[in-house]
TrEMBL record:
The lineage of its organism: Bacteria, Pseudomonadati, Pseudomonadota, Alphaproteobacteria, Hyphomicrobiales. Residues 162-288 form the 3-hydroxyisobutyrate dehydrogenase-like NAD-binding domain. Its EC number is 1.1.1.31. It is an enzyme of class 1 (oxidoreductase). Keywords: Branched-chain amino acid catabolism, NAD, Oxidoreductase. It comes from Hoeflea poritis. GO terms for molecular function: 3-hydroxyisobutyrate dehydrogenase activity. Pfam families: NAD_binding_11, NAD_binding_2. Belongs to the HIBADH-related family. This is 3-hydroxyisobutyrate dehydrogenase.
Amino acid sequence: MTNIAFIGLGNMGNPMAANLVRAGLHVTGFDLVAENLKTASANGLAIADSALAAVEDADVVITMLPAGQHVLSVYGEVLEKARAQTLFIDCSTIDVDSARFAHGLAAEKGMLSIDAPVSGGVGGAEAGTLTFMAGGSDEAFKLAEPILDPMAGRIVHCGDGGAGQAAKICNNMILGISMIAAGEAFVLAEKLGLSHQALFDVASTSSGQCWSINTYCPVPGPVPTSPANNDYRPGFAAALMLKDLKLAQDAAQSSGAVTPLGASAAQLYALFNAAGEGGTDFSGIINFLRGQEKK
Ligand code: NAD
C-alpha cells in the first residue's frame, strides 16, 4: 500500500487528507497545532510527532502549508531522511521562486517533486473536487496523478517545476481584477438607476460575462449561491485574495512582466484588508468601493 505523509493539516489539509484515507490510502499526518492533529486522528490518519517522523516510511510526502518559507523549512528538515525516490507534492500556494527552489532541493536529494496548488477552497477540499495545477516532470506528474485523484475534480499538468504556482497566481490575478471590475460596474449601475438584475441579465449573457458575474455575482439576488446572499461570508476570504495578488506582484517584479491592473487590485485588496475585512469574502470589495464614493 502507498504510504503518504501529509504535513500541514489546517483548513485545507485536514479535509484533503481525509479524502485520501477514504480512498483507502495509509496517511500519516503532522501539524504544529494539537487541535488539528485531533481532527486528523478522528478522520483516520496516523499521527506523527514531527515532520521527520511522518516521512520516515513514506512513498509520497504532501505539504499544505501557509507560505514559501514554511515549505522550504519543512523540505530542509525532511529531505535528508526521506527514502530515495520519494515523491514530494506541495499543494500550498507559494511564490514561484520558492517553488522552483523547493524542486531544486528535492532533485539534489534524488527525489521527484511537483508543485500542485489548488483552487476550490475548503468546500472543494471537503468534497474532493479541487482543481490541481501541477508543475513538474512528466515522470513525477504521472506518479502524482492517482494520489491527487481522490482530492480532485480536475488535474492540469501546466508544465515544468513552478508552472502550477504560475498558473494559480495568473488565474487569481484575473479573478481579483475581474471581481473589482464587476463591483465597479454594479456600483455605477446603482448610481445610474439601473437594477442589479437588469445589469446581471445583460452582462451575464454578453461581452461583460465572467465568473465574477455569472457564478459569484457580488450583489445579492441574481446568483442565489454567491456569498453576497450570505452576508459576504467566505467562500474565499479577502486575506487569501490579497496573498495571491501579492504573489502575482512578486512574480511580475522578478520576471519583468507589466501588470498595472494586477498592481491596482493588490492595492485595493490591501486597503480592504487594512479596514479589518480580511475575513470577509473577497466579493465584499464591492461594499468597500461603495464606501469610497464621492459625497
Ligand atoms: P491553514 O493556516 O488553515 O493551514 C496551514 C497549516 O500548516 C496550519 O495548521 C499550520 O499549523 C501548519 N503548519 C505551518 N508550519 C508548519 C510546519 N513547519 N510543520 C507542520 N505544520 C505546519 O491554511 P489553509 O487555509 O489550510 O491553506 C493552506 C494553503 O492552501 C495556503 O498556502 C493557502 O494559500 C492555500 N489555499 C487555501 C485556500 C482556502 O480557501 N483556505 C484555497 C486555495 C489555496
